[in-house]
Write a structure and sequence with these properties.
Shape: globular
Strand content: 25-35%
Mean pLDDT: 93
Largest sheet: 9 strands, antiparallel
Helix content: 25-40%
Length: 206
Amino acid sequence: MPRQSQRIARARRVPGADPIAHFARCFRAARAAGLPEPHAMSLATATPEGRPSARMVLLKGFDRRGFVFFTNYRSRKGRELEANPRAALVLYWPPLRLQVRIEGRVRRVDQAESDAYFASRPRGSQLGAAVSPQSRAIPDRRMLERALVALERRLSGAPVPRPAGWGGYRLGPDRIEFWEQRENRLHDRLRYRRSRGAWLRERLAP
């Protein structure tokens, strides 16, 4: 069996009662497929009035508590999550013909977790996060470039401190759906939803 077919077969293993374990299998298959950004995902948020917005972010970790990403808390997504802490994620891996949709409530990770991840980033990314007023209107790109140079000079090689307005969020899922492309548009859709503290699995029509 060709390698690609093997990866698809692994990702399509019949899911058990635990959607997080099945997601882990799918994610491993996506990484093994050599995709350039297997952890790229769409994050959808909304204002309290219901005005939606979506953008791509990177999945930086997951476990039974939820799915973690990092951003500027003062960005549009950060402001919307503070006002309406519910969100949706979508990951799509074309070679596996597999999509995963995740919905739930979002909370900030603790400061130690944000500090640890920020410290692991390349120095250039740290500097960029420190000088960028994300989602705010700015006069031109040169403003950012000058601010980055000025900060680097001021630090003189010292570690870049994590900005107070930058850190992680964890989406605690209450719904997870696995969509697998099949012939004749008879795609597989398996949805897990929390019910009385347990996961209930349902098959949906495509």
